[in-house]
Design brief:
Pfam families: 3HCDH (PF00725), 3HCDH_N (PF02737), ECH_1 (PF00378). InterPro entries: 3-OHacyl-CoA_DH_NAD-bd (IPR006176), 3HC_DH_C (IPR006108), 6-PGluconate_DH-like_C_sf (IPR008927), ClpP/crotonase-like_dom_sf (IPR029045), Enoyl-CoA_hyd/isom_CS (IPR018376), Enoyl-CoA_hydra/iso (IPR001753), NAD(P)-bd_dom_sf (IPR036291). The protein is α/β, with parallel strands linked by helices and 700 residues long. The protein is 48% helix and 12% strand. The chain folds into three domains: 10-270, 2-enoyl-CoA Hydratase, Chain A, domain 1, CATH 3.90.226.10; 303-478, 3-Layer(aba) Sandwich (Rossmann fold), CATH 3.40.50; 486-694, N-(1-d-carboxylethyl)-l-norvaline Dehydrogenase, domain 2. It is built from 28 helices and 18 strands. The strands form three sheets. It has an eight-stranded mixed β-sheet, with helices on both faces. A seven-stranded mixed β-sheet has the order 1-2-3-4-5-7-10, with helices on both faces. It has a three-stranded mixed β-sheet with strand order 6-8-9. The model is unreliable at 1-5 (pLDDT under 50). The structure holds 1,4-dihydronicotinamide adenine dinucleotide. 1,4-dihydronicotinamide adenine dinucleotide binds next to helix 12 and helix 15.
């Protein structure tokens, strides 16, 4: 937004400017990227207010934001530092606004989020540019608004609408905000050209409304029912509950004790592990798509997909949903028909839930062109193969693609474990070959592992990172190794689960302990869902590389030898009734576990839930540290993003590497050393972890 002052503007701090426009003082937040309310911004606003109060030539005050938005809220990088609590706090700034005899108008463009909206709520009037968004999204970071938002919003727009906005964090656009009474007017053109005369008109009125002094009507509001509707497994469940408590406090208490209560709940959350973890993830997700290497992203028009099975169908949907035209190729008519019918069925299920209308279903289906002619892939800019997981099959497919695809096309494989470089080697364009490892269901799961081969071009990587974000994924760049980041780490996780079974735990106990820890699924139920045959094939392939002296649990192999591959055969670690996904304990599996333990000379013992969680988690952490050290992941936070978005790791724990930081790196290493002492070589600590502890580091 431009500002042409009628008197020169002056800096109140390095992040706030002050200018006079006739008889209106404008306080401009100028703290890129989103005018976060750090200590200098709060101080600047406070000084600006005092200046305007004492200037007889000023009749009204406008607070506005420079750059793309009014204000994105608190400066979360300052949380848990002294700057976050430096005076004046937001509460003091708002108290100064409310005490002002001259009207203060918030002029909102872009967005007013969190503390930004609280600042606006403290103003006497709010005008918003059409298209701007207003929200109190603190719950997404495991927090509640801490600057009076939970006390003023219910007084301004009513308890139920406020409760809904605060505990869900959902935004209102300017139009909805006007209808709700959250803003007083909408500016269609230049915001300041609207806000300045608006402020002067209000100044002429004499007295000005203050949200915190408005009466509050809580008749018919059922807080218990709102609490009962919360999902206790949501990653921000604690914060959602606290948000409801805050709004309830607004209905019970006068404004000042209400503000105290809100602050008390905010302070408890901001010091808690869950909010720290969610804030870590907030930055981790922003960081993940960034890659070093300087490639330039190209444009993707048409997308080609080979294989209309489980993954190919889901990938086709992911692109069609984002508006991309897709050519879906299969090797025979029956498989193609099956694949297309499944895509339609999935869309119709979405439509039946009311999330898509009939026209939306048809528009998406129309973007997917089924084909039995591989030449039809010739014009695609990006081709993704999702055929069987077999190197010979993949190589044959890539030779074919090399022959038919246009120059400059990106040739991607969805392999979950195979070596990208061996696949690239059978083309004459290894720079165009990359791994795009989607997760099942591919139209739903947010994670995409982008696998960089030895010869993959920087532009190809940049293009894939960009297109991934366009289809709503969080891309994480990973290097070539067995299983890349996510599946490689599962190896140790499943290894420990197998050992714990032999030592005395049951499948139900292992899965129960880990789901209570917060995992979306336990490791054994997950193996049943993914298909135990897939891991079995991997174990057989890797058997020759397994050192003979290392302990190996045969439980999974024995289960597979009986033709039990998990849910698809209604039997794996558990048994399943026809048509049901409910895992049921199975004495056959208990027998296998006891046999394996006996053969290995293990005397079974009671195993505690704590031991299960500790061994499975530390196996993830130690392998994650190796992955970071080898440069397979660009950064530790990427490993966390992979686990939270691809493997059901609890967001409120921030991912395995953040979890280790919460435990303390020294304590983590000590536990790993103790496990090595007890269980041997599998627990050799990652050198990176040892080095970091030696240096006294607290983070990876
Ligand atoms: P699937 O068996 O459901 O589908 C494979 C499809 O490819 C079948 O429809 C088959 O007819 C077709 N196909 C085989 N050879 C072909 C060829 N030469 N040309 C065209 N089509 C051909 O398998 P799924 O589960 O979809 O897996 C595909 C790939 O995705 C594998 O590499 C797998 O490792 C990978 N993957 C699978 C995940 C999963 O959860 N299922 C997760 C991530 C990756």
């Amino acid at each position: 937004m431009s500002l042409t002052a009628t008197s020169p503007s002056r800096d109140l701090s390095n992040t706030v400017r002050y200018a006079l426009h006739g008889r209106v003082a404008v306080i401009f937040l100028d703290n890129p990227p989103v005018n976060g309310l750090g200590d200098t911004v709060r101080r600047g606003i406070h000084e600006g207010l005092a200046l305007a109060q004492s200037d007889a030539a000023v009749d009204a005050i406008v607070i506005a934001g420079a750059g793309k938005a009014f204000c994105g809220g608190a400066d979360i990088r300052q949380f848990n530092t002294p700057a976050a609590t430096a005076k004046p706090m937001l509460r003091d700034v708002i108290a100064a606004i409310e005490a002002s005899g001259k009207p203060v108008v918030a002029a909102i463009h872009g967005f007013a989020l969190g503390g930004g909206l609280e600042l606006a709520l403290g103003c006497h009037y709010r005008v918003a540019q059409a298209g701007s968004r207003l929200a109190l999204p603190e719950v997404n970071l495991g927090l509640v608004p801490g600057g009076g938002g939970t006390q003023r919003l219910p007084r301004l727009i009513g308890v139920m609408p406020a409760l809904d906005m605060i505990h869900t964090g959902k935004p209102l656009d300017a139009g909805a905000a006007l209808a709700a009474g959250l803003v007083d007017a909408i500016a269609e053109g230049d915001l300041l050209a609207f806000a300045l005369p608006y402020a002067l008109e209000r100044a002429a009125q004499g007295s000005h409304p203050v949200a915190s002094r408005r009466a509050l009507n809580a008749d018919g509001v059922d807080f218990a029912a709102t609490r009962a509707r919360l999902n206790p497994k949501a990653r921000n469940a604690i914060a959602q509950r606290a948000a409801i408590d805050c709004v309830e406090a607004a209905t019970r208490l006068p404004i000042e004790p209400g503000l105290d209560e809100e602050r008390r709940l905010f302070d408890a959350l901001v010091e808690g592990d869950a909010s720290k973890a969610l804030r870590h993830l907030f930055f981790a997700e922003k960081e993940a798509p960034r890659v070093s290497g300087g490639g330039r992203a190209g444009q993707i028009g048409r997308v080609g997909i080979l294989g209309a099975g489980t993954m190919g169908g889901g990938i086709a949907m992911a692109f069609a949903n984002a508006g991309y035209p897709v050519t879906l190729y299969e090797r025979d008519q029956a498989a193609l028909d099956r694949g297309v019918a499944l895509i339609r069925k999935n869309y119709e299920i979405t439509a039946a839930k009311g999330k898509l209308d009939a026209a939306g279903v048809e528009a998406r289906m129309a973007r997917i062109a089924p084909s039995l002619d591989v030449q039809d892939l010739g014009q695609a800019d990006l081709v993704i193969e999702a055929v069987f997981e077999d190197m010979a099959v993949k190589q044959a497919v890539f030779r074919q693609l090399d022959a038919v695809c246009k120059a400059g096309a990106i040739l991607a494989t969805n392999t979950s474990r195979l070596n990208i470089d061996e696949i690239a080697a059978c083309t004459v364009r290894p720079e165009a070959v990359i791994g795009l490892h989607f997760f099942s269901p591919a139209n739903v799961m947010k994670l995409l592992e982008v696998v960089r081969g030895a010869g993959t071009g920087a532009d190809v990587i940049a293009t894939c990172m960009a297109v991934a974000q366009k289809i709503g994924k969080i891309p994480v760049l990973v290097g070539v190794c067995e299983g890349f980041v996510g599946n490689r780490m599962l190896t140790g996780y499943w290894r420990e689960a197998g050992f714990l079974l032999e030592e005395g735990a049951s499948p139900q106990q292992i899965d129960g302990a880990l789901t209570r820890f917060g995992m979306a699924m336990g490791p054994l139920a997950m193996a049943d869902l993914a298909g135990m045959d897939i891991n079995w094939a991997t174990r057989k392939r890797l058997a020759p590389t397994r050192p003979a002296h290392l302990r190996y649990s045969k439980v999974a192999d024995r289960i597979c030898e009986l033709g039990r591959f998990g849910q698809k055969t209604q039997a794996g670690y558990y048994r399943y009734e026809p048509g049901s996904r409910q895992p049921l304990p199975d004495p056959v599996v208990d027998g296998i576990i006891e046999d394996c333990a006996r053969e290995a000379g293990i005397v079974r013992r009671p195993v505690s839930d704590e031991e299960i969680v500790e061994r499975c988690m530390l196996a993830l952490v130690n392998e994650g540290a190796l992955i970071i050290e080898e440069g397979i992941a660009q950064r530790a936070s990427d490993v966390d993003v992979v686990y939270v978005h691809g493997y059901g790791f609890p967001g409120a724990r921030g991912g395995p590497m953040f979890h280790a930081q919460t435990l303390g790196l020294a304590a983590t290493l000590e536990k790993i050393r103790a496990l090595r002492h007890e269980h041997g070589e599998h627990w050799k600590p990652a050198p990176l972890l040892e080095r970091l502890v030696e240096q006294g580091a607290t983070a990876f």
